[in-house]
Write a structure and sequence with these properties.
Strand order of the largest sheet: 2-1-4-5-6-7
Radius of gyration: 42 Å
Number of helices: 20
Oligomer: single chain
Shape: elongated
Number of strands: 15
Strand content: 15-25%
């Protein structure tokens, strides 16, 4: 349930704090007072699209925060790592630069996360819902929502995706003979070229290192010869001198025992120098090369680089490309066998889809009959006594007999008056009838969902008199199960409210200001009189308004009585 709403610098609202109650909350006020701004603010704090134009003129930023009961969003909080509390505080800030930020219980979230949370908390019915009802492409979604056929729909979608995957595989294998021959030639050439090249990952780096070594072999040989000579090349070499030093220290140790360990140290140094000399000698041997070796290195590097440039990849990519070309070639060579197997698999998958689509269709048709009955009941209670309403089924066109949504095309048809033929809602329904059909759908669907709050923005469009009274009663009935917020201009609907809020607009120092005030009984009498009259509130109007409130209270009491 929505407990409260705080608005700062949204359009003509500089600051407003609104408290909502359980049951039916109604917003009234003069045209242009800012009732729609309250709804826009709620949509913004639920993650809806916002425009910088919402920021009040002269302000740098706008802010909206809403407080909800937290029970219905516990799973969302756990999934999004938001601290669970008894209440849920949603915040949205919007700057004049168009940037916005969102928070839930003080933790930053994205607008997408906020929208997902908002869908669990509140459902807003506005003019866009009426447009969706006129769009027959939306009718199947309405029916599925009423049918509660998620299990059957998900089973069909899984079968359909498997079928589509097989179709895509078949399309990949099907090609005309000339295209097949061309692709085979290309793949054979690629396989032959890369196989002959004997690509080995890491070879290019090894070749470059060897080539660089050979390029500088003359200077390298010179320095290695000098190093070897210094270590081992003559009686004056370091190894020989170490031997002399070891002998001399050994003789000296005969008179000074403290020098004895030095002999071992010098011997170790001599051995290390011998090892170094051996490494140098081996490296000298590696520099023994011919011009043919250098040319072979350059030729091999040139081949690798040409292939890398041709196929726009490195050694590892060339190896992978060879394996992929072999795989594709095998597929082409055995495409006939594979196609035959695919056709059998496709036939089986198609039959599976038709069976699961049939199960889905059965669930939908059963739900369609129930929906027809419920909508007609609702509309007759809304002063459409001769209405007829059906969910019209037709098969999906095409060879398969199904598409991504199943095997059914569904559209809602109606006849508003006795003797009239059934037809599309877009052609049959007037503005007032469309509002009542939408209200009937919302009322019926509300029995199926767990969304705790419903908002109706001017659901009274095109209705008056007894029809308006019935809409008010229907909203009151719905408010027994859910919290309902309604923007209205009709006194019959406003009188049914458990809580009535008046949106007032005023001017101060050349600026427009809007505030939202909760009305007591006398305030409601005056507001209902204004809604009923033509600008002059008479004693008779106030008396009539008081009677209207009493009748509405008595009606609401009957709804609460078991």
């Amino acid at each position: 349930m929505l407990r409260s709403l705080h608005i700062e610098n949204i359009a003509v609202i500089e600051r407003a704090d609104i408290e909502f109650s359980p049951g039916l909350n109604v917003l009234t006020g003069e045209t242009g007072a800012g009732k729609s701004i309250v709804i826009d603010s709620i949509q913004a704090v639920l993650g809806g699209r916002v425009s910088r134009e919402l920021v009040r003129s002269g302000a740098e930023k706008a802010a909206v925060s809403a407080v909800f009961d937290g029970e219905c969003a516990a799973d969302w909080c756990r999934e999004n790592e938001v601290d669970e509390e008894d209440e849920l505080i949603l915040q949205r800030r919007l700057g004049v630069d168009g940037k916005s930020s969102c928070r839930v219980n003080g933790q930053p979230v994205s607008a997408a996360q906020l929208r997902a949370l908002g869908a669990l908390l509140l459902d807003i019915h506005g003019q866009n819902d009426g447009r969706q009802l006129l769009d027959e492409r939306q009718h199947l979604g309405y029916l599925d929502r009423f049918a509660g056929d998620e299990e059957e729909l998900n089973a069909f979608r899984a079968d359909y995706e498997a079928y589509c995957a097989l179709k895509r595989e078949r399309e990949g294998l099907e090609m005309d003979e000339s295209e097949k021959l061309r692709l085979e030639d290309s793949l054979r050439h690629r396989v032959a070229e890369l196989t002959k090249a004997e690509i080995r990952v890491g070879e290019e780096a090894e070749l470059i290192a060897r080539r660089d070594l050979l390029r500088n072999s003359e200077k390298l040989t010179e320095f290695l010869n000098a190093a070897y000579a210094a270590l081992y090349g003559s009686d004056e070499g370091a190894v020989s001198l170490c031997g002399d030093a070891e002998y001399a220290v050994g003789r000296a140790a005969a008179w000074c025992q403290e020098l004895a360990p030095l002999s071992e140290q010098i011997r170790g140094a001599a051995m290390a120098l011998q090892d170094a000399a051996e490494i140098i000698r081996e490296k000298q041997g590696e520099l023994d090369f011919s011009e043919e070796e250098y040319d072979a290195l350059e030729e091999r590097l040139s081949l690798l680089r040409r292939l890398e440039k041709k196929y726009m990849t490195d050694e590892e990519g060339l190896s992978a490309l060879l394996e992929e070309a072999k795989r594709q070639l095998d597929e082409l060579e055995y495409a006939g066998d594979r196609l035959e197997k695919l056709e059998k698999a496709l036939h089986a998958a198609r039959e599976t889809c038709r069976r699961s689509a049939g199960a889905l269709r059965k669930k939908r048709m059963e739900a369609g009959e129930r929906l027809q009955t419920r909508i007609v009941e609702e509309l007759r209670e809304l002063c459409m006594p001769s209405v007829r309403f059906i969910a019209d089924f037709s098969p999906v066109a095409g060879e398969d007999g199904f598409n991504a949504t199943g095997s059914d095309s569904v559209r809602f048809l109606m006849s508003a008056n006795a003797g009239e033929a059934m037809g599309p809602i877009s052609r049959i329904a007037s503005g007032g009838e469309l509002s009542r059909i939408m209200l009937a759908l919302k009322n019926v669907f509300a029995e199926k969902d767990d969304i705790p709050t419903q908002i109706f923005d001017e659901v009274d469009t095109g209705v008056s008199g007894l029809a308006a009274q019935r809409i008010g009663e229907k909203l009151a009935e719905l408010s027994v199960r859910k919290q309902v917020l309604c923007v209205t201009h009709l006194p019959q609907i406003a009188a049914m409210a458990d809580t009535q809020l008046r949106v007032e607009k005023s001017e101060r120092q050349g600026r427009t200001f809007t505030k939202v005030v909760e009305l007591d009984r006398q305030g409601r009498v005056e507001e209902l009189s204004r809604l009923t009259g033509s600008g002059v509130i008479t004693e008779a109007l106030q008396q009539s308004a008081g009677e209207m409130l009493d009748r509405a209270a008595a009606y609401r009491q009957t709804l609460k009585t078991p």
